[in-house]
C-alpha cells in the first residue's frame, strides 16, 4: 500500500511526525507528495521543524532553494532560528516568506551578524517609509536581499526624504512614523540572544532592533532575551529589573552614535 492510498488529511497527520530531512526527501519523491508537503501549513507550523537548532545545513543557499516552496498561508505563526549559519540576506528571505503571518520570532546568532541584520533592516525600513511618502510601491524583503543593497542606501541618501539625517538618527525617528501596511502585521513576540551578552555592541543593536521591529509591525515590540535554547534564564530579580526599565523607557529614547569601526550603524553619507 502506498502512502497516497490514504486520505490527504491522514497523510498530513503522518508526515507531521517527520524530521526536516525526511520531509524534504518525501517531497522530492513524488509530485503529489511534493504538493502536500509544501502546501500544507499544518506540516510547517512547528517552530522546531523548519530550522533545527544549530543545523549547519541551514545556509542562505538552503533558504533560497527551499523556503519559497513553502506555503505563505497564515498558518505559519512561529519562527525559531537558533545558532544557524545565516547572514542578514538569509534572514530577510525568511521574513519575505513568513512576515505577514508570523507572531513570534526567536533568533540566536553572533553579535556581528545581528549588527549586520539591524543595519540592513534599517535601510530596508527607511526605503519603505520613503516610498510610502511618495505613494510608490513598497519593496519586499526578497527584493532587498537579491538586489544591490547599495542602490537602496544610495537612493535613500540622495532623496529629499532624509535631508541631513543619518541612518542612526532615522532609526530614532521610526518611533514616530507609521506604515500603512507593515510587513510584520501579526508580530507580537521577538526574542534575540547573541554570543556577546550585555556587551555595548549587543545593547546598541538590541535597542535599534526594538525600534525597527516596532516600526515594521506597527505596534510596540520589546526585544525579549529570555527562553531561547542555550541562553541562561535570568533571575527573578534581574528579570523584574529589566521589565521595570522597559516600562520606564519611552519611544523618544536616543542612543549615542558610534562609528562604523565600532560595529554600529554608519551615516548615510558613507553609503553612497
UniProtKB/TrEMBL annotation:
Record's compositionally biased regions (Polar residues): 258-272
Positions of the UniProt region annotated as Disordered: 223-272
Domain F-box: 1-47
Domain of life where this protein originates: Eukaryota
Protein name: F-box domain-containing protein
Taxonomic source organism: Mucor saturninus
Amino acid at each position: 500500500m502506498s502512502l497516497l492510498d490514504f486520505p490527504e488529511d491522514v497523510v498530513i497527520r503522518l508526515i507531521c511526525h517527520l524530521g526536516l530531512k525526511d520531509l524534504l526527501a518525501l517531497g522530492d519523491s513524488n509530485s503529489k507528495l511534493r504538493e502536500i508537503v509544501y502546501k500544507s501549513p499544518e506540516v510547517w507550523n512547528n517552530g522546531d521543524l523548519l530550522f533545527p537548532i544549530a543545523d549547519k545545513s541551514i545556509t542562505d543557499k538552503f533558504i533560497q532553494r527551499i523556503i519559497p516552496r513553502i506555503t505563505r498561508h497564515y498558518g505559519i505563526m512561529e519562527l525559531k532560528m537558533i545558532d544557524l549559519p545565516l547572514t542578514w540576506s538569509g534572514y530577510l528571505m525568511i521574513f519575505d516568506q513568513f512576515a505577514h503571518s508570523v507572531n513570534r520570532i526567536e533568533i540566536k546568532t553572533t553579535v556581528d551578524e545581528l549588527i549586520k541584520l539591524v543595519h540592513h533592516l534599517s535601510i530596508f525600513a527607511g526605503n519603505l517609509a520613503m516610498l510610502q511618502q511618495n505613494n510608490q510601491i513598497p519593496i519586499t524583503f526578497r527584493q532587498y536581499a537579491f538586489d544591490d543593497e547599495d542602490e537602496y542606501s544610495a537612493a535613500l541618501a540622495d532623496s529629499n526624504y532624509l535631508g541631513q539625517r543619518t541612518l542612526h538618527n532615522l532609526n530614532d525617528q521610526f518611533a514616530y512614523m507609521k506604515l500603512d501596511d507593515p510587513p510584520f502585521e501579526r508580530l507580537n513576540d521577538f526574542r534575540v540572544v547573541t554570543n556577546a551578552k550585555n556587551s555595548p555592541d549587543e545593547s546598541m543593536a538590541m535597542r535599534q532592533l526594538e525600534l525597527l521591529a516596532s516600526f515594521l509591525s506597527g505596534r510596540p515590540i520589546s526585544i525579549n532575551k529570555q527562553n531561547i535554547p542555550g541562553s541562561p534564564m535570568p533571575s527573578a530579580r534581574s528579570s523584574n529589573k529589566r521589565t521595570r526599565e522597559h516600562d520606564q523607557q519611552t519611544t523618544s529614547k536616543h542612543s549615542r552614535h558610534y562609528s562604523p569601526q565600532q560595529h554600529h550603524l554608519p551615516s548615510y553619507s558613507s553609503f553612497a
